[in-house]
Amino acid sequence: MEAPRRVLGRGGILIGSGAALETDALTRVFKARRKAGEVRALQGIDLAVHRGECFGLLGPNGAGKSTLIKILTTLLLPTSGRALVAGFDVADEPLQVRGRINLVSGGDSSGYGILTVRETLHLFSQFYGVPPQLARRRADELMQVTGLAEKANARLSALSTGMRQKLNFARGFMSDPEIIFLDEPTLGLDVEASRDIRGFIARWVRERPERTVLLTTHYMMEADELCGRVAIIDHGRILALDTPTALKRTLPAEPVFELQLSATGQNLDALRGIAGVRSLSHHAHPATGAVELRVVVVEDDVIGEVLGRLKALERSVLHLTKTEPTLETVFIHHVGRGLTDEESGDRDGS
Amino acid sequence: MGRDLAGTETTIRARIRMNAAAVFARASVRVRASFRESSWIVGETLFPFLAMSAFVFVYRGLHAPPEYEGFVVLGGAMIAYWNNVIWGMASQFFWEKEQGQLQLYLITPVSRMSILLGMALGGIAMTTTRAAVILIGGMLLFHVSLPLSRALPAFGLFVLTLGAAYSLGMILSSLFLLWGREVWHTATLLQEPIYLFSGFYFPVSAMGIVIGIAGSILPVTLGLDGIRQIFYGPAAHGLLPLRWIPPIQIALTLVFVTLARVSLLAMENLGKREGRLTLKGD
Q: Taking CB atoms and an 8 Å limit, are A114 and B32 in contact across chains?
């Protein structure tokens, strides 16, 4: 087979460089469904994910993560630009791409209620030409590590939602793909199941150094734990890309404060107007209803002004801590809000 | 060069093996399912049997010639296959999409035609048990006799008919995939009126040559007409001469399979351009 030709793409990425995933000025535009105009889901994405990498893609809802994955898995055509998977163009050589990839979408389930767990895993392995004996061995291993072994002969219709998600996860690895796309794989899983899944991904990457993982997640800790490099994406553009450690180091040495506030009181958006507040994000604690507020300030003294404003907003401060930078801090710094926050008109957070 | 050729051959062989495995795997889902859900067996066997029985009693009440009861029993068995083509083939990709499962098929390296072929073969195997119960039950209960000596040619025409009918199902599958929002109604539209235009319970020639030929675009119409002619001769009131029917069924199969390939590819490309193959979005 002819080796892929190396071309310097418009985005400065060396296309055909042998990376597992490469995109050059990748753009995807959708027609808006209910109004005139269009939605620019991806706006000139340049990306190179190396073989053997576990690469994280972080972004809020609507950032373009799933659109990018759909293009890379040949489910969607780009509007312009180019994407290569394992050196093959997703638009022109989809068959070569498909033989090398698999996809797990968190929250989805796979298979038919009438089949058992074992039969389902075997079924999907057969679409990749996995020899039956090897498929049986892999199914046994995957059922073991995902905690499905006891349910091997149970019908899918008898499984809980979490179990079906675990099965979907195991299904993605039945073909032992060169490149696996994990689109929020732990979405909706309980803490223990999520930990098992993360443990499996880490082990899979470690034991197969030539395999590549592209992981999108809402959980910063997950990306921090698993990914060698992380890209932060919002509104179809990559805002930052580096190792989690390097990303944290790039943050200006600005103090970050985490506050727990009473559930009642006035709207916190008024805090954005305080001079010296770099960014802030907040969400309600699901169990207690207390508001958890994260504020990045240019210097320590600004927190005094924040506390004063909180008092004026009739918000009691229940707890206050100063924290070290995390991936979430990096995310908020670049995107202007946390992953779980609703987008406001004031995107710079200042 | 030799190594290249050998390499190519290995690749082609591997692809054939992979696609054959996919056909078998997808077919086996239906074969397994057919024996696991007792409500399906009752729903797909008993209810069509009751509908068929009603027509038998109508003919008896009218003192129609006894071969009409045979027409009804043969039609009742064939209906099971047509229902499977509509509900198990044509609408299947649409249901898969609704369940978020279609993308799992579309990212695999196997041909979509292999998946459809697997669905068809599995559907035929599943439906054959229902059709056999209807046929044998009808013969025993209503004392319908079919000459065993003509069973082999009838079976041959039956196989050709299934080939053409399921090939039509493959075309419909790709059309339903993207235009199937009202799939339930579309499937019903393809079900009830076709019971009439295909002459499931009466010789289709009774509707006149024009309607009969128009209905013959559906392979089950001509197939059933031909099988009745094989068993009952001139008493079957055939629409077309029997010798024309097998070549027409073969031609329909070839045309439908070709159209299915083209239409599936076109629909997939349209879906990829418009982002309509998956449910989960950004």
A: yes
